What we know:
7 helices, 5% strand, elongated, Gap junction protein
Amino acid sequence: MSWGFLRDLLSGVNKYSTGIGRIWIAIVFIFRLLVYVVAAEKVWKHEYNEFECNTEQPGCENVCFDHFFPISQIRLWALQLIIVSTPSLLVVFHVAYRENREKRHNQKLYKSPGKIDGGLLCTYLISLLLKTGFEIVFLVLFHKLYNGFKVPRLVKCDMRPCPNAVDCYISKPTEKMIFLYFLVATSGLCIVLNLSELSYLTFR
């Protein structure tokens, strides 16, 4: 997958952000996007092939894998990155609207189309609320799907068509759990930054 669009989006929003917003963009780009592309994607690359159960019953291993991993962690992380970054488009569109309006009227209607004030301030605050809400929703989703941010070495499965309770082994559980904790930590930090920027702009 090409992440060029997301990179360009974050770079474009950077010039309209406050200092706190620029820190958020740096964390998303360096500690989330680059970590995903360079390292995390490789850790989960063969998760299905390396998931083993001590049975040869046809279909059992597939059903157990689907039960314990209803959504791949790495795909859910990618979805989180995309959705959390999407509200920034609101700011870009609003600035583009201002610039287009000035061109259409052929006169200067704003002191600076990219300055955070008036309607753009409202748009920026809404984007911060949406980003914070999406972060929280995905953290809750990760917690529910993956048993409280844990990746066990051994899981017991008795789903049909398994003949009885079988032992299934997850590959590289420690490494996966480290990346999961890293994900949670960076999401938490982004939530704190979003709330800090929201408070700063509200009480400024």
